[in-house]
């Protein structure tokens, strides 16, 4: 029987325990360049078995929120290098989350003020986050109506994911990458009927809707090795106005295909991201999903997330339901979360007013548990 505190080899990632820091956007990278404050924040949390960086844009077209870091410029890669060096010096492992937001963006963030891109020209009823450069004030704003990507542009998106992965590993010092195919962003938009109404080979059937996520994952695995590659999925989340008419067969098909790519891990958000783990009108069988992956030969670690507390996390690993458990908000307010879980110490509460944007407050100033 495995424990949450046992080590694990996930592909080429050698992890000292099964507790993972989930990707958390914090909007503290002005100019999309990571900085010393971010290095301090991640290094504080390096006792996690694995840190997943905040969503990081693979290109400027992939940007959807103010002050989100990128992986497409030399200064961004140098900025990340100080983060990964600090994490490694503190004994941690860190992968970056490769992000293309698709339609969840605003033209003011896009190259030359162009509209954002998406599978189909349908606006999401959802918000993005902008910061007024003059006043530094943040505000939520409606997304801009996107334009539909041309089929001829889609191989370029897979290329952009691969290029960002290569940059992340070769120049920014990451141990690997996670493709963000969850939460209603570009790859999830292609997967699901609620955002993909294409009638070419990138839409319609399940196989067609899975094509972009698979092409991008294949390209990344080829660029840096499947053993350093993970993918994040959210079969039923309503985040960012996304839905699918029949998610179970869609995701089982996707997982059977992913099984052939020899990935380090598959990361599944169960239920509504940051909300209920079960959604009455969107039922989903996660055990069947995992079975589909394993029966197709998938050997990657199975990572779960969403609303896990100590008891649920211990039980998930002990029962074999999961190999790794990712914690989001608890890691924001508890840099020493692994110790608190191990010793059953109480958690600090998080301050959601300081999630997005700002400086050290509500970021690097959460207290450690008293030395026992
Ligand atoms: C402030 C904040 C930022 C987030 N940013 C991201 C992100 O960049 N990428 C992503 O996949 N999920 C993101 N999420 C979702 C979390 O990774 C996680 O799925 C969610 O918080 C549920 O896990 P929890 O119950 O352990 O907090 C974010 C959540 C929060 C609260």
Can you give a write-up of this model?
The chain is of the alpha/beta class and 372 residues long. The chain has a single domain, classed as Aldolase class I (TIM Barrel), CATH 3.20.20. 30% of the residues lie in helices and 17% in strands. The chain contains 10 helices and 14 strands. Strands 3-4-5-10-11-12-13-14 form an 8-stranded parallel beta barrel, surrounded by 4 helices. α6 runs parallel beside α7. The two termini are 28 Å apart. It binds flavin mononucleotide.
Question: What is the CATH C-level name?
Answer: Alpha Beta
User: Percent range for helical residues?
Assistant: 25-40%
* Intertermini distance: 28 Å
> Low-confidence stretches at least 5 residues in length (pLDDT < 50)?
none
Instruction: Just name the CATH architecture.
Output: Alpha-Beta Barrel
List SSEs in N-to-C order. Answer: EEEHEHEEEEEHEHHEHEHEHEHH
CATH topology: TIM Barrel
Topology:
Layout: E1 8-10, E2 13-15, E3 19-21, H1 36-44, E4 50-57, H2 74-89, E5 94-99, E6 117-118, E7 127-131, E8 138-142, E9 147-148, H3 154-170, E10 176-181, H4 186-191, H5 206-224, E11 229-233, H6 247-258, E12 265-269, H7 286-295, E13 301-305, H8 310-318, E14 324-327, H9 329-333, H10 337-343
Parallel strand pairs: 3-4, 3-14, 4-5, 5-10, 6-9, 10-11, 11-12, 12-13, 13-14
Antiparallel strand pairs: 1-2, 7-8
Helix pairs in contact: 1-2, 3-5, 5-6, 6-7
The structure holds flavin mononucleotide.
Flavin mononucleotide (FMN) binds next to strand 4 and helix 9.
């Amino acid at each position: 029987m495995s424990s949450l505190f046992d080590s694990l080899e996930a592909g080429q990632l050698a992890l000292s325990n099964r507790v993972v820091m989930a990707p958390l956007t914090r909007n503290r990278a002005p100019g999309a360049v990571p900085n010393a404050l971010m290095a301090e924040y991640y290094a504080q949390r390096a006792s996690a078995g694995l840190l997943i960086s905040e969503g990081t844009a693979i290109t400027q077209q992939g940007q959807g929120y103010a002050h989100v870091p990128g992986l497409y410029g030399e200064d961004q890669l140098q900025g990340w290098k100080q983060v990964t060096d600090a994490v490694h010096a503190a004994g941690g492992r860190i992968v970056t989350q490769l992000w293309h937001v698709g339609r969840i963006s605003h033209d003011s963030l896009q190259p030359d003020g162009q509209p954002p891109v998406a599978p189909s020209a349908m606006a999401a009823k959802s918000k993005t986050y902008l910061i007024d450069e003059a006043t530094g004030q943040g505000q939520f704003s409606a997304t801009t109506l996107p334009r539909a990507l041309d089929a001829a542009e889609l191989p370029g998106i897979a290329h952009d994911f691969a290029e960002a992965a290569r940059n992340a590993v070769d120049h920014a010092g990451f141990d690997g990458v996670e493709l963000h195919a969850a939460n209603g962003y570009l790859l999830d938009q292609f997967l699901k009927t609620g955002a993909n109404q294409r009638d070419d080979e990138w839409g319609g059937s399940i196989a067609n809707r899975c094509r972009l996520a698979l092409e991008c994952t294949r390209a990344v695995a080829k660029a840096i090795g499947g053993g350093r590659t993970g993918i994040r999925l959210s079969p039923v989340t309503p985040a960012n106005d996304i839905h699918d008419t029949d998610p179970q067969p869609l995701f089982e098909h996707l997982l059977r295909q992913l099984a052939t790519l020899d990935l380090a891990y598959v990361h599944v958000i169960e239920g509504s991201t940051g909300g209920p783990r079960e959604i009455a009108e969107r039922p989903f069988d996660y055990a069947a999903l995992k079975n589909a992956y394993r029966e197709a030969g998938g050997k990657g670690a199975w990572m779960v997330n969403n609303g896990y507390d100590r008891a649920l996390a211990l039980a998930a690993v002990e029962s074999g339901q999961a190999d790794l458990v990712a914690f989001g908000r608890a890691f924001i307010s508890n840099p020493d979360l692994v110790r608190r879980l191990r010793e059953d110490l109480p958690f600090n509460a998080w301050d959601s007013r300081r999630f997005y944007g700002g400086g050290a407050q509500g970021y690097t100033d959460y207290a450690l548990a008293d030395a026992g």
